[in-house]
């Protein structure tokens, strides 16, 4: 006994193994689809073959070897087929008294695999949606339409399968439509990563993958100020560097002297240089340099660098204070 799978519209050969050496001469063969006889072959001098009217245009029976051939395969052809053999004088060594069974599966690849957003609008394969922010909930639905057998459907990010409920299936005229919903709280793990709906089925030579990517906005992960570590002398050039990592989009940086915003337009002796570098994960390293000449007016002043982007205003600061001696003393607060 065996299982045979073939695509709808193709031809399939269903074998009927006969061992005359073990069983003797063959008298007749009856072919059954489920409980219904669909073909018969009477051997010997008469050598008559008949096929039921329902299958007359699509089914033929061959000898040498014995086999049933179904053309233009239909979904309704899926069933258990029995080749029932009768021998003139069965030999004791014959082990074919129960016939030979073949389970025939009819395959139909999906007409389409589509991803829908929470509004039911299509997300095109390979597209980027958003922007969305970390901790926001992403909702999407993968729909696999009109296929047989039931496909296996899963949501993936890289080599990690995402947690979901089981897929739901609706059968219409022998074809299945599978639906699998995804509800995912977005995190930094989703940066620059494809979210994939993967479909596997006996009807497909390879797995089908539809995917999209989220334009994800995230908070900075760190902010720091570097510059004078020990002291400097009044009148010397001071360079303070503010570094912000892990934000998307790039942050806006603002320098403060105590509570006053530092603006180079208002002081030609002060310069601010800011640049941003995009990293492999799509986040940015933003770096800003505050350059000025130390004077008595900066004495006891607190300098800070504030960073913000659309996700979160970050107000973490490191301070540099000009002491009475004219030297910088590094503190934090």
TrEMBL record:
Primary subcellular site in the record, as a coarse category: membrane
Localization, UniProt: Membrane
Keywords of this entry: Disulfide bond, Membrane, Transmembrane, Transmembrane helix
Signal peptide boundaries: none
GO annotations of cellular component type: membrane
One Pfam family recorded for the sequence: V-set
Domain of life according to the entry: Eukaryota
Matching InterPro entries: CD80_C2-set, Ig-like_dom, Ig-like_dom_sf, Ig-like_fold, Ig_sub, Ig_V-set
Topology within the bilayer: Single-pass membrane protein
Matching Gene3D superfamilies: Immunoglobulins
Domain Ig-like: 1-83, 110-210, 220-309
Protein's name according to its UniProt entry: (Mediterranean fruit fly) hypothetical protein
């Amino acid at each position: 006994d065996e299982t045979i799978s073939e695509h709808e519209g193709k031809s399939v050969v269903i074998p009927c193994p006969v061992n005359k050496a073990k069983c003797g001469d063959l008298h007749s063969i009856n072919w059954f689809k489920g409980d219904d006889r669909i073909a018969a072959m009477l051997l010997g001098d008469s050598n008559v073959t008949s096929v039921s009217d329902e299958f007359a245009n699509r089914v033929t029976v061959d000898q040498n070897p014995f086999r049933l051939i179904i053309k233009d395969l239909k979904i309704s052809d899926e069933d258990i087929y029995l080749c029932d053999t009768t021998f003139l004088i069965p030999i004791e060594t014959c082990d074919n008294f129960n016939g030979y069974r073949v389970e025939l599966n009819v395959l139909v690849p999906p007409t389409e695999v589509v991803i829908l957003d929470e509004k039911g609008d299509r997300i095109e394969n390979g597209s980027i949606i958003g922007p969305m922010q970390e901790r926001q909930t992403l909702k999407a639905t993968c729909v696999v339409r009109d296929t047989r057998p039931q496909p296996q459907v899963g949501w993936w990010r890289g080599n990690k399968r995402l947690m979901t409920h089981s897929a739901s299936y609706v059968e219409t005229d022998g074809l299945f439509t599978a639906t699998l919903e995804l509800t995912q709280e977005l995190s930094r793990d989703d940066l620059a990563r494809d979210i994939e709906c993967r479909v596997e089925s006996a009807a497909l030579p390879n797995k089908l993958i539809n995917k999209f990517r989220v334009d994800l906005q995230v908070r900075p992960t760190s902010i720091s100020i570097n510059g004078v570590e020990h002291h400097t002398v009044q009148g010397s050039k001071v360079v303070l560097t503010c570094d912000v990592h892990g934000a998307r989009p790039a942050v806006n940086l603002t320098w403060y002297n105590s509570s006053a915003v530092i603006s180079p337009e208002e002081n030609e002796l002060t310069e601010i240089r800011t640049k941003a570098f995009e990293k492999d994960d799509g986040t940015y390293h933003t770096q800003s340099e505050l350059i000025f000449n130390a004077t008595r007016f900066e004495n006891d002043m607190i300098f800070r660098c504030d960073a913000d982007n659309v996700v979160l205003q970050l107000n973490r600061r490191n301070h540099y204070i000009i002491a009475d001696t004219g030297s910088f003393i590094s503190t934090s607060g």
